[in-house]
């Protein structure tokens, strides 16, 4: 599971901008956690025996993950997260890694200035994909159904802005193509149904559940 960084300036925690907590292993802010099904931390977690660190932490340096999914074929866990202004990210989540927020980021403050002078740094996980301007990523899923043979193995990322779903074609952990599927509404979540169709949830007005079907049956 993921937990956000706690908010934007001027929100403070322990005497500083709360977003800095994403780099503090002593709190859950801005982290991915790995738990067992009884809610306890997995004993093999990377910081389980580190004094002062929360044993639940799997990875750190995240701003606001809105979609996370596991590729049923490779077993890799992928997540997309909101930057502030620009710098939304798609990442492969690996245990013990630091994903940078807020010290290494492509993002800017909503009022303009860069959040950090550093967009990348050795030892900090580089995003697989950066969205600037922000598309406000939401739900995330792999498609492995039979209804859309061309989409097999592709990653689908919802967007709250631009009223789209992005179809992301991958070669391993490398992005080799991105297609914008225009939906015309804010997309909150995207999933593959047991029938092999793609399903979307929108979040305007009363919200709607949309089923995406092939043009040719
Ligand atoms: Ca990052």
Question: Can you describe what's shown?
Answer:
With 217 residues, the protein is mostly beta strands. It has strands at 2-3, 12-13, 16-17, 31-33, 57-60, 65-70, 77-81, 88-93, 129-131, 137-142, 155-159, 164-171, 174-182, 187-192, 198-202, 208-212. The strands form five sheets. A four-stranded antiparallel beta sheet has the order 6-7-8-9, with no helix packed on it. The protein has a four-stranded antiparallel beta sheet with strand order 10-11-12-13, with no helix packed on it. The model has no long low-confidence stretch (mean pLDDT 97).
| Count of helix runs | 0
Spatial order of strands in the largest sheet: 6-7-8-9
Number of strands: 16
Return the average pLDDT rounded to an integer.
97
Can you write the helix and strand succession as a string?
EEEEEEEEEEEEEEEE
Molecular shape: globular
Which cofactor or ligand species appear?
Answer: calcium ion
Span between termini: 37 Å
Unreliable residue runs: none
Relative strand content: 35-45%
Structural class: mainly beta
Main sheet overview: 4 strands, antiparallel
Indicate the percent of residues in helices: under 10%
What's the gyration radius in Å?
18 Å
Topology:
Layout (H helix, E strand, L loop, with lengths): L1 E2 L8 E2 L2 E2 L13 E3 L23 E4 L4 E6 L6 E5 L6 E6 L35 E3 L5 E6 L12 E5 L4 E8 L2 E9 L4 E6 L5 E5 L5 E5 L5
Bound molecules: calcium ion (CA).
């Amino acid at each position: 599971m993921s937990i956000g960084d706690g908010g934007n300036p001027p929100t403070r925690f322990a005497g500083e901008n709360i977003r800095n907590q994403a780099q503090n292993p002593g709190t859950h802010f801005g982290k991915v956690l790995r738990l067992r099904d009884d809610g306890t931390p997995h004993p093999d977690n990377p910081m389980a025996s580190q004094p002062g660190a929360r044993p639940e932490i799997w990875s750190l340096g995240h701003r606001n993950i809105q979609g996370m999914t596991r590729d049923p074929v490779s077993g890799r866990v992928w997540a997309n997260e909101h930057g502030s202004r620009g710098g939304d990210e798609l990442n492969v989540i690996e245990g013990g890694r630091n994903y940078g927020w807020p010290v290494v980021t492509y993002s800017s403050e909503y009022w303009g200035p860069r959040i950090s002078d550093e967009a990348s740094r050795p030892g900090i996980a580089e995003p697989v994909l950066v969205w600037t301007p922000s598309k406000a990523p939401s739900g995330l899923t792999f498609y492995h159904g039979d209804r859309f043979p061309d989409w097999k193995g592709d990653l689908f990322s919802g967007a709250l802005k631009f009223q789209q779903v992005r179809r992301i074609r991958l070669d391993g952990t490398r992005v080799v193509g991105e297609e914008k599927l225009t939906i015309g509404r804010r997309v909150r979540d995207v999933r593959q149904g047991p029938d092999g169709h793609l399903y979307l949830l929108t979040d305007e007005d009363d919200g709607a559940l949309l089923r995406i079907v092939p043009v040719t049956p």
